[in-house]
Amino acid sequence: MSLKYAVVGTGAIGGYYGGKLANSGQEVHFLLHSDYEYVKRNGLKVDSVHGDFYLKSVHAYNSTSDMPKCDVVLVALKTTNNKLLKELLPPLLHKDTVVILIQNGLGLEADLQKDFPGLNIAGGLAFICSSKIGEGRIGHFDEGHLNIGSYSCTNPEILEQVCNDLIQSGVRTQVLELEKARWMKLIWNIPYNGMTVVMNCTTANLMSDPVMVDLLYSIMLEVVHGANSVGRGRFSIPESYARDILEMTRHMTPYSPSMKLDFDNRRPMEIEYIYSRPISKAQSVGYKMTRITMLRSQLQFVEAQYLFCDK
Amino acid sequence: MSLKYAVVGTGAIGGYYGGKLANSGQEVHFLLHSDYEYVKRNGLKVDSVHGDFYLKSVHAYNSTSDMPKCDVVLVALKTTNNKLLKELLPPLLHKDTVVILIQNGLGLEADLQKDFPGLNIAGGLAFICSSKIGEGRIGHFDEGHLNIGSYSCTNPEILEQVCNDLIQSGVRTQVLELEKARWMKLIWNIPYNGMTVVMNCTTANLMSDPVMVDLLYSIMLEVVHGANSVGRGRFSIPESYARDILEMTRHMTPYSPSMKLDFDNRRPMEIEYIYSRPISKAQSVGYKMTRITMLRSQLQFVEAQYLFCDK
């Protein structure tokens, strides 16, 4: 039996993975916002390093109340909009629906569970360089795999089926232990999201400077040590993983992470879930993330300057 | 007997203090660079919150080899140009000349002493908001005192006379223990010089944001703790001094520190003496300045981007 998918937030992430699934024949219903009219009329284009594709006819909606109940809901909103989920999700849910939060940061599933106590929740970690490059058009530049982990799924076999569907569609994926996977993803997000904003540059600019590479590495180690303090007895991430992430990024195409794009477009940045939650979580077990706290302060300053000031 | 003064580096600092001394009747010889022709012809103007003044006729030179030997040499170059002192100073020196380095940072006097083993060296700490606002024209916006301390003066009474001359000229001053005074000055320079560059803003912008004020305060505390680790048994700076500096800066006119002006004009920044020396000095006694090291890395990255890259 095939799964019915909903995508909430059809941007660089939701548009890509939802698009891949639809392109491989899955039934996918897309919630759109600004691009709704355009995509309804013209479909969705994905310019991908793995091969371009074009979905001529798309199940497009501008309200979840018009959408069918689905088996799997892929949430790919900015976390700064997660407060909307309380209203957006109910029309999409039947009693076995799994909601997968394909978002970065820590504490997202716990926050959602508070509003939906019985809901089957999972998390997704997208390792992808992609962005919206036009109306109804996604650019995919590098990487692309999507790892998934259960947070409170009473039906974990459905996650296996999601993985199979993704693999069928050409997306590399695996089911991982979620908490560890989220921390591992942060080893990339915390240094690169923030530093590209504060230094106003791409990942490639950062990686071209040995002094900056040392700083990024020391920030990564703070994430590793924070993770291992929190995970003591449950999971552990080796320091060598930070080196791997550095090397991967060194060979990546020059990239502006989503937070940098938010900054460029003067949108709110995802500081809460990517910085504040990990900082407090580590702090709660006695580990102080000094550099990360400094980077967070710089980001909050930058954001306040453009969100609340005129200059 | 009155002292004969030389000013090496007639910019925002040298032009102001040399100008004050000359304006009160002292004999002052100014070494100029880009403004030489203009000042020789038109004199030196100081627009000061304490009262404007104009020196119509100035002893102006574009080479120290044309200057007389002086009793006191006020060095007010950027520290990034201190390597020039080896050539600049000799024509100005008699056997009792005192060279006062009116510059920010740590280790300046020791470096100079290496090149001039027998020289009487002192340091000067300028608490002043001033900048060059045009050809032969200095703007003075706030504060203005200049503290002095001996590094290797065998004739310390001459420093007392310099203080008297400064007081006569309307400059608040006192003789202080130099090492402690340099560290105290760094409690301002380290947070504000670097952060106005990295955040690309004025001191007032920084002070308008409570999150940033907390960060600046924690950076100041690193300076205090570094200073006290280095000064153990010799001197100690109370943490409350950091609060005083914060409050002083909060009430200061919006200001771009000299490092910010260097950044704006894509000139080398004084990272070595203001950041690297204090970091290594503290490190050598076992205190790690984590935030300051991070700020230093950000500054080095920024500088490398504009000094060595095309973008």
Mean pLDDT of chain A: 96
CATH architecture of the largest domain in chain A: 3-Layer(aba) Sandwich
Give the CATH superfamily of the largest domain in chain A. Answer: NAD(P)-binding Rossmann-like Domain
Low-pLDDT segments, ≥5 res of chain A: none
Distance N terminus to C terminus of chain A? 56 Å
Q: Could you give the count of β-strands of chain A?
A: 10
Structural description of this entry:
Two copies of one chain form a homodimer. In chain A, helix 6 crosses helix 12. Chain A has twelve helices and ten strands. Chain A has two domains: 4-176, Rossmann fold; 179-308, Orthogonal Bundle (N-(1-d-carboxylethyl)-l-norvaline Dehydrogenase, domain 2), CATH 1.10.1040.10. The first copy, chain A, has 311 residues and is α/β, with parallel strands linked by helices. The longest helix of chain A has 22 residues, at 210-231. In chain A, strand 9 (137-150), helix 5 (157-169) and strand 10 form a beta-alpha-beta unit. In chain A, strands 1, 2, 3, 4, 5, 6, 7, 8, 9 and 10 form a ten-stranded mixed beta sheet that branches. Chain A starts with a strand and ends with a helix. The interface between A and B is medium-sized, with 23 and 23 residues. Chains A, B: Belongs to the ketopantoate reductase family. Chains A, B: Catalyzes the NADPH-dependent reduction of ketopantoate into pantoic acid. Chains A, B: One of its GO terms (molecular function) is 2-dehydropantoate 2-reductase activity. Chains A, B: Residues 178-302 form the Ketopantoate reductase C-terminal domain. Chains A, B: Pathway: Cofactor biosynthesis; (R)-pantothenate biosynthesis; (R)-pantoate from 3-methyl-2-oxobutanoate: step 2/2.
